[in-house]
Amino acid sequence: ENGVLWMPKSHNRICSTHFVGNKKSNDPQSPSYVPSIFPKAYKITKCNHKQQLERYNRAANKKKMDLSKKVPDAVSSGDFIFPENTSQMSSVNVSIQVCFDVDDNQDFTFHCSFEGNNVSTQAAIPLTSNSNLNFTKCELSDKACGVDSSNSLSCLSCEAFHGFESIKTENALKDLTGTTFPIFNILLKLMPPSKRFSITKENELLLFLMKLKLGITYSALSVMFGIHRTTVTRIFSDVLTTLSTKTKDFIFWPSKKTISDLLPEAFKKNYPHCRCIIDCTEIRVEQPYTVEQRVYLYSRYKGGYTIKFLVAITPNGM
To answer: What pTM was computed for the model?
Structure first.
């Protein structure tokens, strides 16, 4: 009357006339679970209570049929006792396995109890003096299968990538690094012993050459070699510093007389004064941080940021 929400107390009672079907139901899905029929003075939206009750009855009958279909046909002995109010049962998948020995003429009772979402079972077996029940206890054992992660690098029988140990042919090495085994061994001798226990010296050089040849990210290399991304970055920088120092004398500018003496016959006839043949190439890089660097490194031809190289080769191929 005064606009305050009315709250029922322990001594309050609600007339059954306010419930659909003149009876309260304990099923939360039933339209008669809460009172919904009140005088017109309360201005409550009208609803078709008969239609709601019919819809609920159809749903309850459908659940009964579903539950009857789920009773296993394989169990032929024993009595199954279900609750009377099957409309409150939910659709559940239950699997039970019992292992014991009983006489053929000995009956037992198997009871299922449903309370909301909880399901419990109980078997009542009459025990006599002549009964000989043998309950078998299952023995459990843990077994592992597959590759042992602690020794994954030594597993060469599987087809996964295990670094340098997985490379068996020279074509495979060329596809990954662009070098041959003799050149790879020459570069390997120039490198100091590996300071890291997680990766060998061969894999450090392989990682470095794969980065130059394939241009894949440090994160991808970390997944392939099973190390952290920052470790890959440090390995690449260390190998780059070492090889750049020890191989700087491998590339030198020969004298003009040396080039003239070694000119091929075609060059001596058509280009006798050729000193070298030049060409440009570029390699994609990540986006620089500053705008000035982006202006210098952006390539319209490649549609991204690249580093440009000027390559020179003598007429005799050196």
So the answer is: 0.43
| pLDDT tens-digit map of 35-59 | 877 766 555 556 677 777 788 888 8
Average pLDDT over residues 131-138: 57
Q: DSSP of the chain, one letter per residue?
A: --SPPP---TT----GGGSGGGS--S-TTSTTSS-----GGG-PPP--HHHHHHHHHHHHHHHHHHHHHTS-TT--SSEEE--S-GGG---------------TT---EEEEEEETTEEEEEEE----TT----PPPPP------S--GGGGGG--SSSS--GGGG--SHHHHHHHHS--HHHHHHHHHHSPPP--SSS-HHHHHHHHHHHHHH---HHHHHHHHTS-HHHHHHHHHHHHHHHHHHSGGGS----HHHHHHT--HHHHHH-TT---EEEEEEEE-PPPSSHHHHHHHEETTTTEEEEEEEEEE-TT--
Q: pLDDT of 118-130, one tens digit each?
A: 777 776 666 655 5
At 308 the pLDDT is 87
Tokens 């941080």 identify what position?
Answer: 289
